Amino acid sequence: MSQSSATDVPEVTINSMGTKEVEFDNLEGYEYVVVGSGAGGGPLAANLAHKGHKVLLLEAGDDQGSNLNQQVPAFHFRSTEDENMRWDYFVKHSQMRLSRERTRK
């Protein structure tokens, strides 16, 4: 497999409405496309790449690489409260599931 180059990286622009647009000039040659670098996606993409496969890993959000809350592992607690990094999704637990757990024999 050949090494990836800077030309393989998608180009991100912001249109007049402030919405990000991503252009993929060259998607040829990717053997795997992994969506999301969460608990499963990140390790999967890394393991495939280590085995020599050409992998495209897509992730939501913008680049926070220069944000200290992203750079410093000890700042993880701060990153969850950082407006630039948090997603503001909340969990609503199913009442049916809780009811089943209470009536388990």
Automatic annotation (TrEMBL):
Q: GO molecular function of the protein, one example?
A: flavin adenine dinucleotide binding
Fetch the Gene3D superfamilies from UniProt. Answer: FAD/NAD(P)-binding domain
Where on the tree of life does the source sit, at the highest rank? Eukaryota
SUPFAM superfamilies to which the protein is assigned, alphabetical: FAD/NAD(P)-binding domain (SSF51905)
Q: Give the UniProt subcellular location, in the record's own words.
A: Secreted, Cell wall
Listed A to Z, the keywords are: Cell wall, Secreted
Which coarse location class applies to the principal site listed for this UniProt protein?
Answer: secreted
- Membership in a protein family: Belongs to the GMC oxidoreductase family.
- What is this protein called in UniProt? Glucose-methanol-choline oxidoreductase N-terminal domain-containing protein
Q: Which organism is it from?
A: Penicillium arizonense
